[in-house]
């Protein structure tokens, strides 16, 4: 670094104390369970940090999402291109110049932008990053089932006040990689079960949701689908081929992924990664499939954020994305949550369908100043994604009607107000449900989720060449629902219609048409005397446990095939 840059850095540091602000004062700064510090990071070690730049015209973007997603709007289905979105939200010239000057003065190297210009990913040494982000102190950490390594700061950072109107937050400091909540449950013990199904496989799903052998992709369109997951996990092509050999015999399918975005590691296959790709490709059978694989390529990157950058930098993307990732809303800063929500708006404006798992902790639970409350999950609580809950068969060995899977995540956001599209459905549930928890446990005016559900209990998965039974979690229901939406997109594309895009306004307007209503069962919550482990209960119509219900494919196709 030249003497001038050093002097600037020193001046910036002196000024920073008096004229600085904290972009994420409410970000949780504790080490997640199971992680340990390996000590201070080497000052010369290179970090990759992501700078989220202030966007323009976010209100206009919100209006456009409404216009292209509401079936009663004249603009319905007239989705924007990535270039249209970039034109709208691109930061001002002043923002771009100010941030670039600040970063180059600090010695930031080879900063990469995206098509929408609203993110910058830059390489800096630990020493430079700690000078630039006053208060940050980088340590090396290791944790999680895969012994993942991460470089993070558990101390808050501050930025010069002059940047307050130009930077939303800096990624790569605080948030740790997520861990999977997928679980293998013990086999249910029910007497006299000879000749019945022994767990959920593609043929069980296809039978329950009324798909025929003809309900597969035509191979004649540019329709595609994707799953993304952010654990240090990979799927193995040989596991997918074996899964299809064992379970894909009665429908036309593809036995290989069309495209892997991100590093595809050589290590052991992960159960979550195997599940996602196997069930997306067997529900959305014979449709070209992409896998976004742990795109946090460096220990200082946040994998979920890296995925959002990829979406903002690629003009031709799969129409349906299924994501099994979530964090407690309260563990994330307001700046981060609001900005990620805008990223979902950008996807919705482009006609992408984003499906997120609702989580595997029921209503959740945490203690606020000594009082228990339910604990919503994000991105499940975003008003711009379609959130998928979970169900079980009433009889675990028969293809029967479905009941609530007690782990199915659901509830009410403490951050996002209830969107207009669900006003009527949620008000109806709150007014008519006979089993509402005490009102102090949830924010009745918040965005309520999930929107839909599918089976989440008792799946067979092939991982590391071994068929594994009784795998459960909304990580299973999400790719199943996504695959079925891809089949519906296929029909729409063949008829010359645009893809479904952001589904919720249409889904709520049609009041759950084409879905099996799940009306029995409650999910789990706080284990205290007041609620005794019970969260919300399902009932007729929409509810915050299974949404509008699970897919009845021919009926759902009929309601969604035409504009």
From TrEMBL:
Q: Which residues take part in binding Ca(2+)?
A: 517-518, 541, 543
Biological process, per Gene Ontology: central nervous system development; proteolysis
- Ranges of residues in domain Peptidase S53: 199-563
Q: How is the cofactor bound?
A: Binds 1 Ca(2+) ion per subunit.
What EC number(s) has UniProt assigned to this enzyme? 3.4.14.9
Its EC top class is hydrolase
Q: Where is this region: Disordered?
A: 178-197
Q: Which UniProt keywords apply?
A: Autocatalytic cleavage, Calcium, Disulfide bond, Glycoprotein, Hydrolase, Lysosome, Metal-binding, Protease, Serine protease, Signal, Zymogen
Annotated InterPro entries: Peptidase_S8/S53_dom, Peptidase_S8/S53_dom_sf, S53_propep, Sedolisin_dom, Tripeptidyl-peptidase_I
Question: Where does the record place the catalytic residues?
Answer: 272 (charge relay system), 276 (charge relay system), 475 (charge relay system)
Cofactors needed by this protein, per the record, are: Ca(2+)
Which CDD domains does this chain map to? Answer: Peptidases_S53, Pro-peptidase_S53
Q: Name one GO molecular function term.
A: metal ion binding
GO cellular component terms, semicolon-separated? lysosome
Q: Which domain of life is it from?
A: Eukaryota
User: For this protein, what reaction is catalysed?
Assistant: Release of an N-terminal tripeptide from a polypeptide, but also has endopeptidase activity
According to its UniProt entry, what is the function of this protein?
Lysosomal serine protease with tripeptidyl-peptidase I activity. May act as a non-specific lysosomal peptidase which generates tripeptides from the breakdown products produced by lysosomal proteinases. Requires substrates with an unsubstituted N-terminus.
Which proteins does it associate with, and in what oligomeric form? Answer: Monomer. Interacts with CLN5. Interacts with CLN3.
Q: How is this protein named in the record?
A: Tripeptidyl-peptidase 1
Origin species? Catagonus wagneri (Chacoan peccary)
What phylogenetic lineage does the species belong to?
Eukaryota, Metazoa, Chordata, Craniata, Vertebrata
